[in-house]
Amino acid sequence: MSTNRRIVLASRPGANNEPRLENFRTEDCGYPVVQDGQILAKTLFLSVDPYMRCRMNEDTGAHYLSPWQLDHACEGGGVGVVTDSKHKDFHTGDFVESFNWPWQNYSLVSAAGLRKLDPALLGGQLSLSQGALGMPGATALLGVREKGHVMPGANQTFLVSGAAGACGSLAGQIARLEGATHVVGICGSEEKCRLLREELGFDHAVNYRTDNVADRLKKCCPRGIDTYFDNVGGEISETVIKQMNEGSHVILCGQISEYNKDVPYPPPIPQVVTDILKDRNITRERFLLLNYQDKFEESLVQLAKWFHEGKLKVKETVMEGIEKTGEAFVSLMKGGNVGKMIVHVADP
For the chain, where are the alpha helices, taking DSSP H only? Predict the structure, then answer.
């Protein structure tokens, strides 16, 4: 067996600072001994996601998220293969995933919340369980269906921010499949804008770093905006809301622009924006996948069907080696990903 390694939280960035590489440390560790009822797994892929920024704080600001502990292995979404099991429901060779997977080459994984994976459903691409055919995909699909009010034939304009990310890149495509006639994305580079238009089927893309967002939206959304899938919050979202139609809908999925600030979630918005929401009867409802666990499995089946039919295009940014996990997260928080950010730790 190769050396077992893990990534631990070496320090907290502080509630109002950006995460840095120095906040993480790679260290060697021992191999766990498997006791009755336990499962030892080899890590294949690790997921890094924006919500993890909250877990770097002592107070995560969310009741369903526990903080990472200093000098302990970080954890999050992950997929691996069982190498030793003393649990009746899991066997050596099973491919499994968990939302609480340690950033470690080999580790004990809890049977609670552990899901067996069907490689055939994933087209043999196990990393998809952490992206398009996992939590981000289900978030995009159920967010659009449960909060978006997208209806075929209604001639609706659908806008998504963070549009080249894991969730946003899927949400725009799903909105089109669900019946939106006009799909627009906001992202942070010309490369990402081209991706949205040329590969993912968006009608228009807005580069928030170089464009005047308000002016571009007026040109790209001449009929106004009917549904806004909000992944970023902040000034961009305030600009969007000012151009939304009467009776429109904001899907409050993420607020990545605010995660490095010590503010409550959802972050407060200016009074002028609050007045617009009220005057135009715009719904702005937080979407949390945990509230739709009963629809999770069926959503994955739908996503897999679209994927295998070629209707849903998937993008990944992959970093190699467990030592790169901290770097991958820091890069993600600065927009360094196209699609889902994944760390490839090992092959089966």
Answer: 52-55, 135-147, 168-178, 190-198, 213-220, 234-241, 271-279, 296-308, 325-333
Which distant-in-sequence residues (6+ apart) come within 8 Å of 260 by Cβ?
Answer: 13, 16, 17, 18, 19, 53, 333
Q: CA 170 to CA 168: how far, in whole Å?
A: 5
- Which spans in 42-200 are helix H? 52-55, 135-147, 168-178, 190-198
Q: Is 32 helix (H, G, I), strand (E, B) or coil?
A: coil
Q: What is the pTM of this model?
A: 0.93
Residue of 279, 253, 8 lying closest to 145 (CA atoms): 253
- Tens-place pLDDT, residues 311-329: 999 999 999 999 999 999 9
**Structure confidence by residue, pLDDT tens digits, 269-279:** 899 999 999 99
pLDDT value at residue 80:
98
Task: Please tell me whether residue 292 adopts helix, strand or coil conformation.
Answer: helix
